Amino acid sequence: MRLTVYSDYALRLMMYLSLNRERLSTISEIADAYDISKAHLMKITHELGLKGFIETVRGRQGGMRLARDASTIGVGEIVRASEPDFAIVPCMEEGAERVCAIQPACVLKRALASAAAAFLDILDGYTLADLTKPSAPLRSLLALPEARLTTA
Questions:
Q1: How far apart are CA 70 and CA 61, in angstroms?
Q2: Above 60 in pLDDT, residue 149?
Q3: 20 Cβ contact partners less than 8 Å away, ≥ 6 residues apart
Q4: Where are the domains of the chain?
Q5: Is residue 150 within 8 Å of 21, Cβ to Cβ?
Q6: pTM of the prediction?
Q7: Residue 74 has what DSSP assignment?
Q8: How far apart are CA 106 and CA 10, in angstroms?
Q9: In angstroms, what CA-CA distances link 84 with 11, 23, 33, 78, 122?
Q10: What is the model's pLDDT at position 45?
Q11: CATH dotted code for 5-85+127-141
């Protein structure tokens, strides 16, 4: 199984926002940090905003941030929202009719569907917060300043 570049970038964007909760982040800075396409990130940002994962603030001082706490955002949830489907083979595609001679008696389709479900079940065991611990090495690699500690 392989995730699309779209999902990869969506996960990276979400991790960046989780690491940079203290302020708004921009598409340009995230693209530069990961050395990835700004155009791709613009589309991903728009769609993640529509799906309620991030909040965007327009204007000169604008940017984006997580819409919810990272500990409440499941990795499986992000992947499901960013992948078009999990049809590993053509016969698993929605509406597929008789694309294979053995389809009526095939156990492979069921096995592959179980494997895809297991893959997502494992991802459901992780949150965005889990992916960004420990944060210091990740912040350093992405050239983010150390997080400010807040006192109550």
A1: 23
A2: no
A3: 144
A4: 5-85+127-141
A5: no
A6: 0.87
A7: B
A8: 34
A9: 15, 31, 26, 12, 19
A10: 96
A11: 1.10.10.10
